[in-house]
């Protein structure tokens, strides 16, 4: 039940349709900037969704004209170095909670995705951008660096050369360039954004949930390993998938020339 998942949450709005949780960042006056409270809510929501068998996938978007315009600097400005590290820990925990959720997560990016906003989007499995979306890591303008995982996830998505360029220069990237460099998967018109994300999610949810989950684990954890260990992980996750009822149904449906019912 989406009501139970969203219980006590103030800064994120939730809806549910046919097994998909639609989460909307909801601090539009602050351009959905991430404060400490919101970061904690992301972790809490992802943990609750992980335990909810009715929710099969997540679409993360926002209310207002910004996806997430960064971290709420007003709340962090006078922190000590140790306190700054705590901010990084909270931001990384939120992004890690999205990434480790063993269900598909699609970011539907409708405006500015800067700093922590770009990092949240990169933690999602797939990114669909509106033509009005703008991405960037502007932290060096503040004498800082990306700290919610941006130095690592951006490099893994677009390569070290482009990641260094974007982080060192703080240059913002519009949707068409984000698509070209591999930062997003697809670009659509603003009024098509949520429907495009839902269409892709519906396609994913027609497939085996256990297989998608195993594939997500293999891809995410394998990216952190050398090739030998990554291939060992792939074998192990294949064995897990093979042991699931979906494997019986999927292979039987193929041989019987019918559509699988997962």
Keywords:
alpha/beta, 6-stranded mixed beta sheet, 4-stranded mixed beta sheet, 11 helices
Q: Span between N and C termini?
A: 21 Å
Q: Outline the low-pLDDT stretches.
A: none
Radius of gyration: 19 Å
Please report the total strand number as a whole number: 10
What kind of sheet is the major sheet? 6 strands, mixed
Strand percentage lies at 15-25%
Task: Give a written overview of the molecule.
The chain is an alpha/beta fold. The protein contains 11 helices and 10 strands. It has helices spanning 2-5, 36-51, 81-100, 116-123, 150-158, 160-169, 175-181, 193-205, 209-222, 227-242, 245-255; strands at residues 12-17, 20-25, 57-62, 66-68, 105-109, 112-114, 126-130, 134-136, 173-174, 186-188. A 6-stranded mixed β-sheet has the order 1-2-3-5-7-10, sandwiched between helices. The protein has a 4-stranded mixed β-sheet with strand order 4-6-8-9. β1 (12-17) and β2 (20-25) form a beta hairpin. It is globular. The model has no long low-confidence stretch (mean pLDDT 96).
Q: What's this entry about, in short?
A:
With 262 residues, the protein is of the alpha/beta class.
Helix and strand arrangement:
Elements (H helix, E strand, L loop, with lengths): L1 H4 L6 E6 L2 E6 L10 H16 L5 E6 L3 E3 L12 H20 L4 E5 L2 E3 L1 H8 L2 E5 L3 E3 L13 H9 L1 H10 L3 E2 H7 L4 E3 L4 H13 L3 H14 L4 H16 L2 H11 L7
Parallel strand pairs: 2-3, 3-5, 4-6, 5-7, 6-8, 7-10
Antiparallel strand pairs: 1-2, 8-9
């Amino acid at each position: 039940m989406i009501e139970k998942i969203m219980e006590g949450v103030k800064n994120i709005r939730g809806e549910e349709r046919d097994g998909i949780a639609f989460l909307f960042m909801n601090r539009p006056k602050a351009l959905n900037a991430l404060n400490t409270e919101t970061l904690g809510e992301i972790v809490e929501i992802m943990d609750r969704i992980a335990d909810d068998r009715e929710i099969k996938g997540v679409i993360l978007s926002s209310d207002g004209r910004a996806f997430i315009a960064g971290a709420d600097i007003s709340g962090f400005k006078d922190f000590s170095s140790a306190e700054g590290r705590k901010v990084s820990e909270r931001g990384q925990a939120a992004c890690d909670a999205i990434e480790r959720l063993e269900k598909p997560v699609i970011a539907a990016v409708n405006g500015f995705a800067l700093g922590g906003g770009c990092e949240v989007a990169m933690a999602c499995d797939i990114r669909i951008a509106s033509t009005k979306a703008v991405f960037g890591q502007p932290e060096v303008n503040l004498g800082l660096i990306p700290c919610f995982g941006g130095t690592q996830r951006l490099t893994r998505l677009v390569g070290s050369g482009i990641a260094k360029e974007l982080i060192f220069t703080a240059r913002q990237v519009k949707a068409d360039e984000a698509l070209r460099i591999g930062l997003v998967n697809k670009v659509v018109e603003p009024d098509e954004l949520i429907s495009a994300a839902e269409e892709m999610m519906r396609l994913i949810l027609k497939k085996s949930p256990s297989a998608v989950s195993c594939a997500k684990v293999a891809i995410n954890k394998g990216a952190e390993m050398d090739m030998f260990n990554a291939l060992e992980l792939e074998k192990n996750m294949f064995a897990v998938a093979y042991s699931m009822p979906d494997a019986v149904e999927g292979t039987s449906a193929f041989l019987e020339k019918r559509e699988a019912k997962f």
